[in-house]
Amino acid sequence: MNERDELDLQQFSAGIDLALEAKELAESGGNGPIPGVLSEVSDEEGIKITRLQVQNEEGARALGKMPGHYVTFEVPDLRKLDTGLQDRVATKLAQEFESFLDRIGVGKKANVLIVGLGNWNVTPDALGPLVVENVMVTRHFFELMPDQVSPGYRSVSAVAPGVLGITGIESSEIVQGIVDRAKPEVIIAIDALASKALERVNTTIQIADTGIHPGSGIGNKRRGLTKEIMGIPVIAIGVPTVVYASTIVNNTIELMRSHVQAQNGNTDQIFGLINKMEDKDRLQLVREALGPLGYDLLVTPKEIDQFIEDIANIIASGLNAGLHDAVDTSNVSAYTH
């Protein structure tokens, strides 16, 4: 058994919702490519797309992620509020999402239920409800006046079920009831995520066909929205909107090390044993220091109001174009719904 097989990722994976970050963590020991995990990366004018496929249980154990497809968009300049860039991201998202549906076998006419997970009263957690507000819902037209629906549209319904603390009902139970009555053929669940990297907060979008467990990124164990539970495919779309204080501390230590090394190269004298620790070990040390004190807070940027609205518009526009052939996927506007 090699070092990677012996590594218990569970102690490090709390708060890691992005498969890309799980892959980076698994590779941090310098063991090279991960068996059972395929990766493809493309970069088009500031939009980096990473396509991961976890092929088997070996790859799943290495990453701590379920077997399936994961597509991650990284766009650092989204924080600059460039509307032209937002339109390009919405366009690429629509095109990639359309290909994603084809790859996992979701047909052009499959009925879709969009579920916006999260708490609309808490801005960093309001992504799902905001997307639901802006997606194009059409199921009622197919039900009430099917002969008047133009070609190129499919039946889409949407719901924001709220959170357990507001409704007293698990989101998955609410969605299961809707699935039993409305009979959709696929669920698209949108939720806010947590990240282990500051630069990915509000700049990254992940698509996965493995479903979702609401609240998992912040340590809440909730009944999931998965194919096994719902009986139909579940596609998850997530954006990291928060980061743990321990991550910020760990990243700050690394930035300080880099700064000192650039100045005089003598980092051992200042940082001692911390200088020799691997990133995951140092992060675990910081968590052990902050956790018992209750200081490992969830943190979000002060501009979150604008960020969350912009990213919700991008996702809603991309979904509208990706789900409906009548909407042009070659030039999507992030502010046209």
Automatic annotation (TrEMBL):
Keywords: Hydrolase, Protease, Zymogen
Enzyme type, top EC level: hydrolase
Propeptide: 1-17
Catalytic activity from the UniProt record: Endopeptidase action with P4 Glu or Asp, P1 preferably Glu > Asp, P1' hydrophobic and P2' Ala
GO MF annotation list: hydrolase activity
Family membership: Belongs to the peptidase A25 family.
NCBIfam families per UniProt: GPR
Subunit structure: Homotetramer.
Summary of the function given for this chain in its UniProt record: Initiates the rapid degradation of small, acid-soluble proteins during spore germination.
Name the UniProt record assigns to this protein: Germination protease
Source species: Paenibacillus spongiae
Gene from which the chain derives: gpr
